[in-house]
Amino acid sequence: MTEHAALRGKTAIVTGSNSGIGLGIARSFAAAGLDVVLNSFTDTDEDHALAESLASETGARVRYIQADLSKAEDARALVEKAGRCDVLVNNAGIQHVAGIEDFPTAKWDAIIAINMSSAFHTAAVAVPMMREAGWGRVLNVASAHGLTASPFKSAYVAAKHGVVGLTKVIALETAEEPITANAICPGYVMTPLVESQIPDTMKKYGMDRDTAVREVLLARQPSKEFATTDQLGGTALFLCSEHAAQITGTTISVDGGWTAL
Ligand code: NAD
Fold this sequence. Notes:
Number of helices: 9
Largest sheet: 7 strands, parallel
Bound molecules: nicotinamide-adenine-dinucleotide
Number of strands: 7
CATH class of the largest domain: Alpha Beta
Order of helices and strands: EHEHEHEHEHEHHHHE
Structural class: alpha/beta
Helix content: 40-55%
CATH topology of the largest domain: Rossmann fold
Number of domains: 2
CATH superfamily of the largest domain: NAD(P)-binding Rossmann-like Domain
C-alpha cells in the first residue's frame, strides 16, 4: 500500500489485540507494513501462533508480548519490552453490567484499571519514546460510551469518559510536536464478544436472530448495522496518516449515527 509508505517499519503496540477490534487494528497495521506488537493478559501457544500467522500473511514483523493491563507495572513493562513505540493503541477493555447499588467493587476497580488507567501507564512510557523518535500517534479506543451513557454500565461509562479526557491532555502536552492523540469511539462492533450475546438475547426476548440484532443489540445504532473490525482498522490507519496530522485531542465516532441521536 503506497499510501501508507511513511508508516513502513514503524512500531505499533496494540493492547488487547488477540481478538476483536484490537486484532482488526493490528491486521490493518501489519498489512500496511508496520511492525506490530500484539498483547493480552494470556500467554498461550495460540497467542504466539496468532503473531506468527499475521507475520506470514503480511510479511510484517509481529511479536506477542504478554502483559496484564490491570497492573500498572505490567502496562509500563509492555512498552519497555517492545523497546520502541511509534503508534500506541490503547484498546484492551472489559465490561460488567449491574445497577449502581449492586455493582461489585472488584469489577469497578478492574474496569477502571484495564479500560482507563492502563492507557495512562502505557502513554507515560510511550510518549517519551515518540519524542525521541520525532513522531508519534496515540490512539485510544474509547466508545460511544465515552460520549454518552447507558444505565447499568457505571464503571465502563466512567472509564471511557476518562479515556476521552486523558486523550485531550496528551494532545495538549504534545501539541507543538509531530505527535497526535485521539480517541476512536465505536458504537456496536461485530466481535466474538458481541456475537456471543446474540443467542441469549434471542432466548430472552423470544426473537429470531435478525429481530434480536435490530431491535435489541442495535436499538441505539441508527444505521442498524454493526461497525466492523476492518472499518476500525481503517480509521486507525487514517489517524496515523499525514492527512490526519492536524487532527489531535478529539474523538472520531464509528457508530452508525448513535451519538447523533
Ligand atoms: P474483545 O473482548 O474481543 O477484546 C478485548 C481485548 O482486551 C482482548 O484481547 C482481551 O484479551 C484484552 N484484555 C482483557 N483484559 C485484559 C487485561 N487484563 N490485560 C490485557 N488485555 C486484556 O472485545 P472488543 O469488542 O474487541 O473490545 C475492544 C475495545 O473496544 C474495548 O476497549 C471495548 O471497550 C471497545 N469497544 C468495543 C465495542 C464493541 O461493540 N465490540 C464498542 C465500543 C468500544
